[in-house]
Amino acid sequence: MIEDRVTGRRVIRTAVPADTQAVAALHARARATYYPDGLPQDGIDWPAAWLSAIQRTDGRVLVAVEQGRMVAIASFRVPEGSPADTVKLFQFHVDPGHWRRGIGSELHAGCLEEWRADGRRTAVLDVHVDNRRAQAFYARHGWLPDPEHPAGEGDHHLFLRYAVPGE
After folding, report:
1. How large is the C-alpha radius of gyration of the chain?
2. Contact 31/93 with Cβ under 8 angstroms?
3. Deepest in the core among 2, 18, 55, 160, taking most CB within 10 A?
4. CATH no. of 5-163
5. What is the DSSP letter of 54?
């Protein structure tokens, strides 16, 4: 488990329940950037969903903190029905006011550290088709289209796969 991994001025750490509101607010700010007509009313109680993710024993939520302020979040776990060496990155967001500062790359490295320590060899994710910024980020970090889940016409998400490098 990651314990306050210090990367320059930033700390990457495991989220705790007291982080829930800050995590949910950062998530909303980040999601708003790739919905041109505004965030959809999906009926999800996002603070409750994030609290559940933080409290799960089969996954983790990591946060990047810079000068006392949360600036990025990542949530991952082994998805149901998947091999034990596969992890799914469910959420990965950098606060829009902090883009292009290396925060996402540092958080991604923190995720990789956790995945290797947990024996994960493959990571998967899905990314919204309109989120070109995220797609470019993942491509720069070695994520490739998932041949097991090709995107079909009308899909709102692209499915990506990553080979977690060994130590």
Report:
1. 15
2. yes
3. 160
4. 3.40.630.30
5. H
Tokens standing for 10? 């930033």
Residue type, 131: N
Taking every pair of Cα atoms in the chain, the longest distance, rounded to a whole number of angstroms, is 44
Q: What does the buried/exposed string (b/e) look like for 102-125 if buried means 16 or more CB atoms within 10 Å of the residue's CB?
A: ebbebbbebbbebbeeeebbbbbb
Q: Mind listing the pLDDT tens digit for each residue in 70-82?
A: 999 999 999 999 9
Domain ranges of the chain: 5-163
56 contacts 33 by C-beta, under 8 angstroms: no
The rounded distance, in Å, linking the Cα atoms of 143 and 92 is: 14
Quick one: pLDDT at residue 23?
97
Interatomic CA distance for residues 14 and 30, integer angstroms = 20
Q: What is the pLDDT of residues 102-141, one digit of tens each?
A: 999 999 999 999 999 999 999 999 998 878 889 999 999 9
Residue 1 has pLDDT above 50, yes or no: no
Residue 35 has pLDDT above 80, yes or no: no
